[in-house]
Design brief:
The chain is mostly helical. The protein has a domain of 46 residues. Helices cover 87% and strands 0% of the residues.
């Protein structure tokens, strides 16, 4: 138990040294993360659609010949 108490005291000391971001910085970072998330989602959705369409057309060509 002594080690756990010592550890928690050291954690408290180290956390007091952290420079936490201001609310404006935090909100700005969250907005950037959400915009990047939306951009990647749209990009990978388009890539998925292209590959899916290509695969379906390829399988149709293999199964039924030219159409």
């Amino acid at each position: 138990m002594k080690n756990l108490g010592s550890f928690l005291r050291e954690v408290k000391i180290e956390l007091s040294k952290v420079v936490w971001p201001r609310k404006e910085e935090f909100v700005g970072a969250i907005i950037v993360v959400l915009l990047v998330l939306v951009a990647f989602t749209v990009f990978f959705g388009i890539v998925n659609y292209v590959f899916q369409t290509g695969a379906l057309k390829g399988f149709q060509f293999l199964a039924f010949g030219r159409s």
